[in-house]
Amino acid sequence: MRERRSATDESGRTRDRTRPPVPEPLPAPVTDTHCHLDIADGEDDAFGPAEALSAAAAVGVTRIVQVGCDLPGAQWAVDVAQRHPEIVATVALHPNEAPKLAATGDLDAALSEIDRLAGVSDRVRGVGETGLDHYRTGPEGRAAQEESFRAHIEIARRRNLALVIHDRDAHDDVLRVLDDAELPECVVFHCFSGDVDMARHCADRGWFLSFAGTVTFKNASGLRAALAAVPLANVLVETDAPFLTPHPYRGRPNASYLVPVTVRAMAEVTGVEVESLCRTLRANTERAFGAW
Q: Taking the complete model, does pTM exceed 0.90, yes or no?
């Protein structure tokens, strides 16, 4: 793997932007269930799909779910999944895209294209990431977000695909929409960020909670409590790479080869042996996204 150079942040401090070291391989294979291989982290875009897959496989991360967030990204996800047997795709308009498209009158057409892409190949296994984001979109854009969210739910239900949820600072409204809608069989909360009560609410409905590097952060005791509170049958693991790099590498570029860091933290939280957790995560992934 190539390493990145150090970079300077907005305050002028030097940040370490080299890739973290390769962790100890896992004892059994797992899947990175949410990744953005098309998003370059900083100036270095040399860590492409082939390199990312090779690095991940070397530590036991043998498959990746590539997630689309806009029309170009959704098409890219489909294309890369067709080129690489280790990858499957999901397609969607990110919640923060919806208000922009609504403002230009293009939301309906974009949703129609997502619907088309969702049915173009059996390599597409999910619709997402979709949902609500009250962090980057203010009240003026929330109606468009909810319209888009409900449309994605219907696409996933009609096409019998997993629904992959983005929920940022919008827990109550996301649950309100989900509890009001006719859902597909499989619902996945990407980068779950709720508390124990929300985790139990989701698990009681049979939904999956996918945990990213955030579960390793020092200030994430509530998230670790949520993980400990739900059945392992409802749990997945992801990177959201190139974002959310696990501790102790927070702030450096993330990639699928770092999944073992998160898995080992999850094993410690749940009190389950790492190999047993790996096997459970793999089985859960196949229930969520099918075999490949």
A: yes
